[in-house]
Design goal:
By secondary structure, the protein is an all-alpha fold. It is 70% helix and 2% strand. It has helices at residues 2-11, 13-38, 45-50, 52-70, 74-102, 110-113, 125-131, 149-174; strands at residues 143-144, 147-148. It has a two-stranded antiparallel sheet. A hairpin with a 2-residue loop joins strand 1 (143-144) and strand 2.
Length: 182
C-alpha cells in the first residue's frame, strides 16, 4: 500500500499533492470548527483570518484534481499549486504573528487585543458593556504540548506549502522542454 502511494506520488505529483492538500485542509477546518462549535472556544479575528487560506486552497486543490482528470495544461496546474503554496506560506506567517501576539512578543491588532472600542457612543453604558464581547487574540484559548491552535496552524500551513511547492517543482522538472523557434 505504501509502495503504491509512493509510486503514485512520483508519477502523478500534481494529483497526489492536490489530494493531500484537499484532505489535510478539510481536516484542519473541521478541527477548527470542532473547537468552535463542539468545545465552545469562539475564534478571535486573527483565527478567522487564518481560515481564509484554507477557504481558497481547498477548492483550488479540488479544481486541480478536476483539471488533471480532464487533461488541463500542466502549466495551469503547476501555477495553481504555486498559488496554494503562496497562500499557505502567507498563512504560516499569519500564524507566527498570531502566536507571537499570544506569547506577548509583540502587540496584536487593536480590535482583539487592545483596549476595545469606545463605550461612550451614547445609550446606557451598562447595556453596552453587557452586549460587547471581545474574543482576545493575545490569550491562547487552548494549548497542547506548549502550542496553541495558531502554532499548530503554522505547522499545518508550512507542511501544505511544502507539499504544494515540491509537487509543482517536480511537475516542472517532468514537463518537456519547448524547442526554441529558429
Amino acid at each position: 500500500m505504501i509502495a503504491q502511494a509512493s509510486t503514485f506520488a512520483r508519477t502523478q505529483p500534481i494529483a497526489s499533492a492536490a489530494a493531500v492538500i484537499a484532505v489535510v485542509g478539510i481536516a484542519a477546518l473541521c478541527g477548527a470548527w470542532f473547537f468552535q462549535y463542539v468545545i465552545g472556544l469562539p475564534p478571535c479575528p486573527l483565527c478567522l483570518e487564518q481560515r481564509v487560506a484554507y477557504y481558497v486552497s481547498i477548492p483550488l486543490a479540488a479544481m486541480i484534481l478536476l483539471g488533471v482528470s480532464v487533461g488541463a495544461k500542466h502549466k495551469v496546474l503547476v501555477l495553481a499549486l504555486f498559488a496554494i503554496g503562496a497562500a499557505m506560506l502567507w498563512n504560516a506567517g499569519l500564524g507566527v504573528y498570531h502566536s507571537g501576539v499570544e506569547w506577548h512578543f509583540w502587540q496584536g491588532p487593536q480590535d482583539c487585543s487592545g483596549t476595545g472600542s469606545s463605550l461612550t457612543a451614547g445609550g446606557s453604558l451598562l447595556d453596552q458593556m453587557q452586549t460587547t464581547r471581545v474574543v482576545r487574540c493575545d490569550e491562547a484559548a487552548w494549548r497542547f504540548l506548549g502550542l496553541s491552535l495558531a502554532g499548530y496552524n503554522v505547522l499545518i500551513s508550512l507542511a501544505l506549502a511544502v507539499v504544494a511547492i515540491s509537487a509543482a517543482v517536480a511537475a516542472l522538472k517532468r514537463m518537456p522542454r519547448e524547442e526554441p523557434v529558429t
